[in-house]
Design brief:
- The protein is elongated and about 105 Å long.
- Strand 9 and strand 10 form a beta hairpin.
- It folds into four domains: 181 residues, Jelly Rolls (Sandwich), CATH 2.60.120; 118 residues, no CATH class; 191 residues, Beta Barrel (Lipocalin); 177 residues, Jelly Rolls (Sandwich).
- 15% of the residues lie in helices and 33% in strands.
- The relative contact order is 0.15.
- With 697 residues, the protein is an alpha+beta fold.
């Protein structure tokens, strides 16, 4: 795994200049925040009970008040977590409400009415704290929406119901979840004995109806849309019972047997120091998701560590062994994973003081390039949540006065919580006046550049960048990227804002050489068409391709709409034929490109968006000398890295490289599906690749 993006250096087709700049988007923010939840210490959950308006007893009516210590609300959902299928049960005792039962006659059932029933979903717990935190933070958002309520309910009793036992009654009412109201129907069985009423009410709802799912994160977790909900209620005659206002305890205690637990100091700590600390120590890129400074930091998130390592989701390394061997591979052995899982199951016991430091190795994974020149944004940039995804371009001028090679670089985000990615382009001296004019014409620092660099048609070369997990760039011995006097850089930064919008002044350190005997690196773009029709043969609206292209033009400019047809021409495909190979849910594309020079492949990159399911790049496919350069069987939108071969990969002019991309709509819930074409938006798709060659000689 490499230190940074080394993508497009030279644009072979200027037609695409406006569309290839945005290689990451808002979907990755969600995925990064799921990892943040995994590596977040357990919350201090408020055990206060919901408050509801009490029922006033009518003539002869008994009002039963729910006893939370003997009642529960349970959610059942089918889940795939870390590769294993589970039937998940989440439970809370945080329930409040009243049931009024009127007098009956001749042994018949009495009349029944419900007051509001409120459930505190912030108190939901399962058998895994990672799951609980993901639901709490990312889906139910229960810190902001802690209560689910059933209001305006009416009870219908069956004809054979008795005064003390009812089977098959129904409740019709309005369910309020996270600001969304939906009618629901519940099946109910109930009985009365002495001063106590017991009842079980069940229903099935769809997560998508309330905007809380289905949950999907390839390689980590996925759920079905249906969710079964059960209320198991015990209510006591309110004339002699006052419900508590706070739960006596949480649902359960998951601490395990520590007698055979792995030693933290001897077994767990060395794994964390070697594989995690460099990314998650203070000031490192992973610290915004989880800061690992001491033993307590690890123990607090043990459940999450067990899940993300068992799933091989962390440490991040998407390529499979089907391709060539790649440099800087990350990963844990089966024994190391078992050690972390067993330690977490035992309750994460510590055999050292909580404050014991967890430190990265003294030597970095890759050498840091020299900082011959350090450039900062001209001034701090202040954006805001009004533009949730803000693509901004800034001039970085190294003031070169002689021919120079860029031989390494290190982009350093200032505000990790809002900097989503950065792409750094070389610009020729003749483009400076235009860049300055764009900067001056746009209020605030830099200029808006969601579509390319604001329409600038001057060819440029992408020479660096940053995405989460990237290491510093080192282009290797004897090579670099050639700059002429006056050439400068433009950095495009994608800022993603939630609530916070701190001013950002990111920096970039450059390693430079004036040795003009260096060999200039060349990078080509290899791009495939995207034609994914709507599922089930749906037509009309954005399910029609012309309407989808018009939508792309409206969002990203007229030039963006012509790219899809251009790609089909280059790859010798027809939109209707390629779309016909898809069932509207899954889709695949391939495109072959000819290599234009002799040399060695030193770097490869693949890129797709949220629906990407797999990616492959193959040298000379369908021949005896076929070689898979990069195989990613489970695409991960968060980890779009550049990769370098361990062994020399020599190519000749005329050799073929095939790129193959596959997509799956099941990876993201879309309430209104549309025809998907090649475009910049995260909810659009791409099949985008680069190959960097060190020319022969």
């Amino acid at each position: 795994m490499t230190g940074a993006v080394r993508a497009v250096r030279r644009h072979p087709w200027r037609t695409f200049a406006a569309t290839v700049l945005v290689v990451l988007g808002v979907g990755a923010v969600m995925n990064r925040s799921i990892i943040s939840a995994a590596l977040l210490a357990d919350d201090e959950v408020d055990l206060s009970l919901p408050v509801v308006e009490p029922l006033e007893a009518g003539p002869g009516e008994t009002v039963y008040r729910i006893d939370p210590e003997r009642s529960s609300a349970t959610v059942h959902v089918t889940e795939e977590l870390a590769g294993a299928d589970n039937e998940v049960e989440l439970v809370t005792h945080g329930i409040a409400g009243d049931v009024g039962v009127g007098p009956g006659a001749d042994g018949r059932a009495a009349s029944v009415r419900l007051g509001a029933i409120a459930v505190n979903v912030e108190q939901l717990e399962s058998d895994n704290s990672l799951r609980d935190k993901m639901i709490r933070h990312e889906f139910l958002e229960s810190s902001e929406h802690p209560e689910v309520r059933l209001d305006d309910a009416t009870v219908s009793l069956p004809d054979d119901a008795s005064a003390t036992e009812v089977d098959g009654a129904t409740i019709d009412g309005t369910l309020h979840v996270k600001g969304v109201d939906r009618p629901t129907t519940w099946s109910v069985d109930a009985s009365v004995e002495g001063d106590t009423l017991t009842a079980t009410a069940t229903t099935t709802i769809k997560m998508s109806d309330f905007g809380v799912g289905p949950i999907s994160k390839a390689g980590l977790v996925g759920t079905e849309d249906d969710m079964e909900v059960a209320l198991r209620l015990t209510a006591v005659d309110g004339r002699g019972f006052e419900p508590p206002t706070v739960l006596a305890s949480a649902v359960d205690d998951r601490a395990g047997d520590t007698s055979d637990a792995p030693s933290f100091s001897k077994e767990v700590q060395p794994i964390l120091e070697q594989n995690c600390a460099s990314c998650h120590e203070r000031g490192a890129v992973g610290a915004s998701m989880w800061k690992l400074a001491n033993a307590r930091d690890a123990a607090d998130v043990a459940d999450g560590l067990a899940v993300v390592t068992k799933a091989e989701y962390m440490p991040p390394w998407p390529p499979s062994d089907e391709g060539i061997e790649l440099q800087h591979a990350r990963g844990l052995t089966d024994e190391q994973i078992s050690t972390i899982v067993d330690w977490a199951k035992a309750g994460a016991p510590l055999d050292v003081p909580d404050s014991t430091k967890v430190e990265a190795p003294a030597e970095p994974e890759v050498p840091l390039p020299r900082a011959d020149v350090t450039l900062s944004l001209p001034e701090p940039y202040q954006g805001g949540p009004a533009t949730k995804d803000d693509y901004r371009c800034f001039i970085l001028d190294p003031h070169l006065t002689e021919p120079t090679f860029l031989t390494g670089s290190n982009f350093q985000p200032d505000q990790l919580q809002i900097v989503h990615h950065a792409l750094v382009y070389q610009r020729p001296a003749r483009a400076m006046a235009d860049a300055v004019a764009r900067d001056a014409a746009d209020p605030g620092g830099g200029w808006s550049c969601a579509t390319g660099m604001g329409g600038d048609s001057t060819a440029g070369a992408l020479v660096g960048g940053w995405v989460p997990g990237q290491r510093p760039q080192d282009f290797g011995d004897g090579v670099g990227y050639e700059f002429e006097p006056g050439d400068f850089l433009v950095v495009q930064i994608h800022y993603h804002y939630d609530a916070d919008a701190p001013p950002d002044r990111s920096t970039m350190a450059l390693e430079l050489s004036h040795d003009m005997s260096l060999i200039p690196l060349h990078t080509s773009q290899l791009i495939g068409p995207v034609e994914i029709p709507c599922p089930g043969g749906l037509t009309g609206g954005l399910c029609d391709r012309p309407a989808a292209l018009a939508d792309v033009a409206q969002r990203f400019g007229p030039g963006a709409a012509v790219v899809s047809d251009a790609l089909n021409r280059i790859c010798r495909t027809k939109p209707e034929e390629l779309a016909a190979t898809s069932d509207g849910v899954t889709a695949t594309t391939t495109c072959d490109y000819r290599i234009r020079e002799d040399g060695d492949i030193v770097d490869v990159l693949g890129h797709m968006h949220e629906l990407g399911s797999s990616y492959r790049m193959t040298l000379n496919p369908d021949t005896a000398g076929q070689k898979v350069l990069l195989d990613i069987p489970t695409w991960d939108f968060d980890w779009q890295l550049n990769y370098q071969p361990v062994e020399r990969v020599t190519v000749k002019k005329g050799d073929t490289i095939r790129v193959s991309c596959s997509w799956d709509r099941n990876l993201r819930f879309d309430p209104q599906p549309r025809y998907i074409v090649f475009a910049e938006g995260t909810r659009d798709e791409m099949c985008f690749s680069t190959v960097t060659i060190r020319p022969e000689g």
